[in-house]
Amino acid sequence: MQEDENNVIAIDGPAASGKSSVSSRISAKIGYLHVNSGLMYRAFTWSVLRSEIDPNDAASVVGHLNSINLNCGQSDGISTLRVNGLDPGLELKSSEVNENVSVVSAVEEVREALVSKQRDYLKIANIVMEGRDIGSVVFPETPYKFYIDASVEVRAKRRMAEGGGDDLNKRDKIDASRKVSPLLIAEDACVIDTSEMDLDQVVQAVFNELKVRGLEKL
Ligand code: CDP
Ligand code: CDP
After folding, report:
1. 60 lies in some domain
2. How far is 146 from 192, CA to CA, in rounded Å?
3. Mean pLDDT score, 137-160
4. 198 lies in some domain
5. DSSP state, 86?
6. Looking at the 3D structure of the chain, how many domains does it have?
7. Ligand 1 test: best mutation among 129, 146, 148, 171, most atoms within 8 Å of CB?
8. Ligand index nearest the alpha carbon of residue 193
9. Is 152 part of a structural domain of the chain?
10. How many A from CA of 41 to the centre of ligand 1?
């Protein structure tokens, strides 16, 4: 399949707004590959911490980037991640990774390397990609872009219900204020405030908008 024949649906938004849940339902329904770009930043951060590199030392972080093999692929329709052949698994969601992922993700060279891997996915499949800058920076040309939001109180409650261990406010602040591709709402994104919506309603709202925007084969 040619890269220019494939579609990308971009789902951006702050932490715990519902990006993963919505993206996985949409991709399952229409047979697109679900790619969670946040997990790539988490995997690299996991590797930085595991190698006992100071996440605040940008030069060492970049050095580490150039010394590892971060493989982003897919197997049987599921996207996969390996760091030097290892699958970090549940450690991607550890509180140590939560605490350090935003500072590592703010490093320009890290973003360049991961954005390039994110773009490679479009060469192999139709994709639903979630993140912070997918509609604004990674695939600005896609007409299918969404910004999923919810109040900070609702998002904190959702994360607490999952077990907590995540300072959303701190992460959001770093993500929205960094110099390189900060979290922002792309001009042509469809914004959905999900504070008072359940998942089915959000998925339906996304589908309705995809139809309006002309996505065929829904
Ligand atoms: O699921 P949640 O929204 O809590 O986080 P995530 O999507 O797994 O992303 C973890 C972190 O990776 C974010 O807080 C950002 O610092 C970073 N990230 C990013 O900078 N750009 C992206 N496209 C995706 C994630
Ligand atoms: O990927 P992101 O961090 O943006 O959020 P998520 O992991 O999809 O959702 C965080 C939690 O909120 C999950 O437990 C979802 O089931 C829940 N959620 C919800 O209750 N209502 C929504 N409209 C969206 C998500």
Report:
1. yes
2. 7
3. 96
4. yes
5. B
6. 1
7. 171
8. 2
9. yes
10. 7
Is the separation of the CB atoms in 97 and 89 below 8 Å? no
The mean predicted confidence, pLDDT, of the chain is 95
**Nearest CA-CA partner of 153 in 19, 17, 11:** 17
* Three-state DSSP state, 74: strand
- Containing structural domain, residue 52: 8-211
Question: Which tokens in the block code for residue 26?
Answer: 């949409």
Provide mean pLDDT across the span 152-180: 92
Using a 6 Å cutoff on CB, does residue 111 contact ligand 1?
no
* Residue 88 belongs to some domain of the structure: yes
Eight-class DSSP state of 57: -
DSSP structure class, residue 118 = H
pLDDT digits (tens, 9 = 90+) for 74-83: 999 999 999 9
Q: Retrieve residue 203's tokens.
A: 């998925």
pTM score: 0.97
171 lines ligand 1 (CB under 6 A): yes
pLDDT tens digits, residue range 94-106? 999 999 999 999 9
Ligand in nearest proximity to the CA of 158: 2
CATH code (residue 52) = 3.40.50.300
Question: Rounded to whole angstroms, how far apart are CA atoms 165 and 173?
Answer: 17
Structure tokens at 217: 């084969």
pLDDT of 1 reads: 45
What is the Cα–Cα distance from 218 to 215, expressed in whole angstroms?
Answer: 7
* Count of positions (residues) in the chain: 218
pLDDT at 178: 95
